[in-house]
C-alpha cells in the first residue's frame, strides 16, 4: 500500500508511524513476558520464616496449600505458573506469563499499541481502496485487481479482529486499575478488605509517578544486564527472578 507510491511523504510518514508502533508493541510484549509479575517465593511457609515476621497477637496470615508459601493479601495461585502472584489479574497465553502487580503496566501498553497499529492499518486499507477506485487498479498496486481486493479484505478483517479484541482488553484493564480491582477479584466477587485506590491514584500506582508521556514508554526502567539475567535464568529453569 505504501510502495510504490506517488506521494513520498505520505509513504514515509505512514511507514514510520506503523513501524514505530510495531516496535513499541513488541517491546511491551517482551517486557510483559520477561518481567516478574509479582511471584511469591515458593516454600517460605516455614516455622523460622513465620517467627521472623514478628506477628502481633491475633494477626492472621494465610498459607497457600499448593505452593507452600505465605500468601500476601490480594495474591492468588496460578495453576499454570504454579506460583502465587501478587495482585494477579489473569494468566495470558499471548504473553506466556501472568499479569500481576509488577508487569500489568506493560500489558496495558501492549494492548494499547496493538489496537493503535490495527486502527492505523485499517485506515490505510480504506485510503488505499478509495485511491484505487479513482484511478486504474493497475496503477495503484503491484498486484492484479483481484489479488489486491482479496488482500485488502483479508487485512481489513484481521485489523478489525485485533482492534476489537485489544481495545476491549485495554478498556477492561483501565477499568480494573481505576477501580483497584483485578479481574479475578471481580469474577470471584471478593469484598475489598483493602483501602481502594480510585482512578488517578490507581493509575499512578501501576504506571508510577505523575501523568506524563513516560507512562507510554515500555523501555522505562529497562536494564540490559537485568534483561540478560532474566533470560539466562529462564533458560536455566528458573520460573521467575524473585
From TrEMBL:
Transmembrane segments: 106-129, 149-170
GO cellular component: membrane
Enzyme Commission code: 2.3.1.225
Keyword tags: Acyltransferase, Membrane, Transferase, Transmembrane, Transmembrane helix
GO molecular function, one term: protein-cysteine S-palmitoyltransferase activity
Domain of life from the UniProt record: Eukaryota
Topological relation to the membrane, as annotated: Multi-pass membrane protein
Main localization, broad class: membrane
Compartment annotation: Membrane
Palmitoyltransferase DHHC domain boundaries: 63-189
Catalytic activity as recorded in UniProt: L-cysteinyl-[protein] + hexadecanoyl-CoA = S-hexadecanoyl-L-cysteinyl-[protein] + CoA
Pfam families for this protein: DHHC (PF01529)
Family: Belongs to the DHHC palmitoyltransferase family.
Domain remark in the UniProt entry: The DHHC domain is required for palmitoyltransferase activity.
Protein's name according to its UniProt entry: Palmitoyltransferase
Amino acid at each position: 500500500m505504501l510502495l510504490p507510491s506517488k506521494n513520498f511523504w505520505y509513504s514515509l510518514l505512514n511507514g514510520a508511524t506503523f513501524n514505530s508502533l510495531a516496535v513499541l508493541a513488541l517491546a511491551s510484549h517482551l517486557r510483559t513476558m520477561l518481567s516478574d509479575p509479582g511471584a511469591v517465593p515458593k516454600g517460605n511457609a516455614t516455622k523460622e520464616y513465620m517467627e521472623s515476621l514478628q506477628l502481633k497477637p491475633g494477626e492472621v496470615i494465610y498459607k497457600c496449600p499448593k505452593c507452600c508459601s505465605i500468601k500476601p493479601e490480594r495474591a492468588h495461585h496460578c495453576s499454570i505458573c504454579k506460583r502465587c502472584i501478587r495482585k494477579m489479574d489473569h494468566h495470558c497465553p499471548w504473553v506466556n506469563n501472568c499479569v500481576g502487580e509488577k508487569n500489568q503496566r506493560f500489558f496495558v501498553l501492549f494492548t494499547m499499541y496493538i489496537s493503535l497499529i490495527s486502527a492505523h492499518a485499517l485506515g490505510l486499507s480504506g485510503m488505499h481502496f478509495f485511491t484505487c477506485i479513482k484511478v486504474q487498479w493497475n496503477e495503484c498496486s503491484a498486484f492484479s485487481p483481484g489479488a489486491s481486493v482479496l488482500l485488502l479484505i483479508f487485512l481489513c478483517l484481521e485489523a478489525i479482529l485485533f482492534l476489537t479484541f485489544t481495545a476491549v482488553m485495554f478498556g477492561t484493564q483501565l477499568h480494573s486499575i481505576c477501580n483497584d480491582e483485578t479481574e479475578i477479584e471481580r469474577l470471584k466477587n471478593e469484598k475489598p478488605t483493602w483501602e481502594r485506590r480510585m482512578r488517578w491514584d490507581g493509575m499512578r500506582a501501576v504506571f508510577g509517578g505523575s501523568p506524563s508521556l513516560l507512562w507510554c514508554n515500555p523501555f522505562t526502567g529497562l536494564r540490559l544486564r537485568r534483561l540478560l539475567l532474566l533470560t539466562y535464568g529462564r533458560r536455566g529453569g528458573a520460573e521467575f527472578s524473585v
